[in-house]
Amino acid sequence: MSNEETTASNENAEVGVRFADLGLSPLVLKAVEKIGYETPSPIQAESIPHLLAGKDILGTAQTGTGKTAAFALPLLSTINVKASIPQVLVLAPTRELAIQVAEAFQSYASQLKNFHVLPIYGGSDYGGQIRALKRGVQVVVGTPGRVMDHLKKGTLKLNDLKAVVLDEADEMLRMGFIDDVTWILDQTPEQRQVALFSATMPREIRKVADTYLTNPEIVKIETKSQTVDKIEQLYWLVRGANKLDALTRILEVEEFDAIIIFVRTKNATAELAEKLEARGYSAAALNGDMSQSLRERAIERLKNGKLDIIVATDVAARGIDVKRVSHVINYDIPYDTEAYVHRIGRTGRAGRSGKAILFVAPREQRMLQSIERATKSDIKRLELPSKAQVADKRITQFKAKISGAIENQDLDFFREQVVAFAEETAAEPLDIAAALAYMAQMDNPLLQPKDIIEDKPMREERRDRNDRSRNDRERGDRERRPRRERDENMDTYRIEVGHNDHVKPGDIVGAIANEADIDSGNIGHIRIRDDFSLVDLPKGMPPKLMDHMQKVRVRNKPMQLKLDTGPRGGGERGGDRKPYKSRDNNAPHRSARKPHRGQARD
Ligand code: AMP
Questions:
Q1: What is the CATH topology of the domain spanning 458-563?
Q2: In this model, does residue 591 exceed pLDDT 60?
């Protein structure tokens, strides 16, 4: 099956592969420059030349490696914008990914006139998608079910398709879409190019590759194992608070000397450094656009304490050796484990200890696992400091400042002023002190109890970390999971497909995740019976969505989703359980679990 195996590693960046060396079209290069990418990620450096040469590709790559640009940049470089017909089709497992990929195409095509990309996915109305398809698009990014529907309706035509990308193929397999994917591949012209990206390569995906890829180049990220001593490693799962808020909270409570914060783009170094400066930190950007002397000056200022925070890209920070660096914060996740090891090696210098904090979006958890595996470290979960902790810290610092001033400053003149003020106004000394304290804290206000509204507790991780590492979870796993206590945030729903229809949990997850826009992580326990199934879903599904879910098809049967009403209604819930509470259809739908993003739909 394979041609030649190539491995991508961070060395590409070290030997200085540049975007300009890869053969991309000038307009695409210009867009990349505008976005602020400095160097191609390893998977990009390997994949782009192959895709430009028209070869098929089998890429082992997960989210965070830059795989979207690895296929979007070369495919855009050869697209014909004069022809308003689909030339590239990307299949993605979820609507979120489809939208994200479409947005990425849009940004990489910012310099191409008359370029149009359309995301198509279940749950949104056909009319809009059909109109957009009629107006003409060059790239379609869709979830398999909806793409298949459009092909069957004849509203999407692939006669002139030049390339198909299967993005996160293993996820599509897990969600029960693989038959749809192969059906779609069968509808594409024989000569089309295929790029298949998958974080793992289970047998079924290899089979697809064997059947549909011609002499593919195999590209994967090499994970050399490397050890990292002395560095305490933590990760924060990005949720709830945004990254900037999280960062500032961490900066408030962490005792740090100097920090290097890593981001992905040149633009992000400048933006984040500015935001931190606006919040009172002495921060500066460090990126590849800066001259050597400017960079050296920034590092010198970090060394001598004139600067506490540097926000850097990987390339710019290579080799920084500053003993004061007590923390590395990976604000954007690195492309691979080698980059991670390089980054965190900027702390713990000269025998000192160091701390590394990694921000991980839920979709990037696989990268976290790879890093843990390659570095043989257990990266511990960091809970964001609570607002009460931040408040305590500010008060402690404020008190320390007062004590410092009492101890170290000559206050005679100021004492005289206070005495004079007290005599003139008959104000109590305590009131004067309180007023001065109020004035002194204005820049970094102390938080009063009334100001402290803690974030809502996040729902418990659905998967524990060992579970998370089971990448090749089979489609039946959900069903085999031991029955847990019913989660009070979940309702049990019944759907009219079961074993008799050969339904698998993955089919149900896929249909619900895409059509109801419920994150697959929020779909609970699934029990399949002969002629129906039960599935736990977050409470409070809007009536409109319930209506829509009647018609959604699983294994070619309408699922007819409804609340399970127990054995009398033909369901399963025993009399030992409390009846469902009466439902208030006007109640706000978003519970703490916040699963349904799109509310109004067809
Ligand atoms: P992906 O792995 O495709 O989901 O990409 C992860 C993130 O990396 C996205 O936010 C991209 O914008 C960003 N990214 C991709 N390629 C590069 C690059 N060469 N330099 C900097 N950032 C990049």
A1: Alpha-Beta Plaits (3.30.70)
A2: no
pLDDT band at 239 (very low <50, low <70, confident <90, very high): confident
| Residue list, ligand 1 pocket, CB within 6 Å | 37, 40-41, 44, 63-69, 264-265
Give the nearest ligand 1 atom to 265 CA: 21
Percent of the chain with pLDDT over 70: 84
pLDDT band at residue 484 using 50, 70 and 90 as cut-offs: very low
According to CATH, what is the number of the domain 231-385?
A: 3.40.50.300
Return the residue whose CA atom lies nearest to atom 16 of ligand 1: 66
Looking from the CA of residue 39, the nearest atom of ligand 1 is 19
Q: Do domains 5-221 and 231-385 have the same CATH topology?
A: yes
CATH 3.40.50.300 applies to domain 5-221:
yes
Give the start-end residues of each E strand in 443-552: 490-495, 526-528, 533-538
Residue 83 CA to ligand 1 centre (angstroms):
28
Quick one: average pLDDT of 351-368? 91
Q: Whose CA is nearest to atom 20 of ligand 1?
A: 37
Which residues, 6 or more positions from 483, have their beta carbon under 8 angstroms from its beta carbon? 525
Q: Where are the alpha helices (DSSP H) in 310-385?
A: 314-317, 337-344, 365-375
10/519: higher pLDDT:
519
For the CA of 62, the closest atom of ligand 1 is: 2
One-letter amino acid for residue 559 of the chain: M
CA angle 96, 101, 103 (to 5 degrees): 95
Least Cα distance to 210 among 199, 223, 194 occurs for 194
Among 243, 264, 265, 311, the mutation site with the greatest number of ligand 1 atoms within 8 A of its Cβ is 264
Provide CB contacts within 8 A for 285, sequence distance 6+.
269, 270, 272, 273, 298, 310, 311, 312
Q: What is the pLDDT of residues 376-413, one digit of tens each?
A: 889 999 988 888 888 888 899 899 999 999 999 999 99
